[in-house]
């Protein structure tokens, strides 16, 4: 498999290191480019949470395109070492924080800050994306009121989720990869005042 690269922004074109072994499932350049075309200029100055970060490819792309802060989380020591190396290669250390911990343990903590974007790309076929959404739904203030949760899964894993605080807004398929976008549901007060 071709190593991932930074596609756009100040570090565009730099090849990234891959995590050794087959435990991670890096996003393809095609899907990553499509994702950041969708996000567009909203990434500039944003805060970004890269859960199950793997190589860090998505969070690094966000930093390259002007995100002000990216938090990378992975439970794998090899992934954490790879992210550190990729930050060094791309000169994107500023604004980056790396946490070597379980993503679910992190999300169960009371939120210490809100994120404009939360990217969820766990190992496939284990129902982990549904679990991540459920934990986020129980702790919804991890996401800013105008923020977006982006889930990357195999299309065969998809099922509609009934969530209290978030609603599916869009779904895009790129071959064997599906991206699902969730936004905060409008609050009842906001609905009442808009009538």
From TrEMBL:
Chain coiled-coil ranges: none
Alphabetical list of Gene3D superfamilies matching this protein: Vaccinia Virus protein VP39
EC top class, as a word: transferase
The protein's Enzyme Commission number: 2.1.1.171
CDD domains (UniProt xref): AdoMet_MTases (cd02440)
Pfam families associated with the record: Cons_hypoth95
InterPro entries linked to this entry: RNA_MeTrfase_RsmD (IPR004398), SAM-dependent_MTases_sf (IPR029063)
Source organism, top-level taxon: Bacteria
Keywords: Methyltransferase, Transferase
Entry's Gene Ontology molecular function annotations: 16S rRNA (guanine(966)-N(2))-methyltransferase activity
Keyword Transferase assigned: yes
Cross-referenced NCBIfam families: 16S rRNA (guanine(966)-N(2))-methyltransferase RsmD
UniProt protein name: 16S rRNA (Guanine(966)-N(2))-methyltransferase RsmD
Native source species: Thermanaerothrix solaris
Gene name of the encoded protein: rsmD
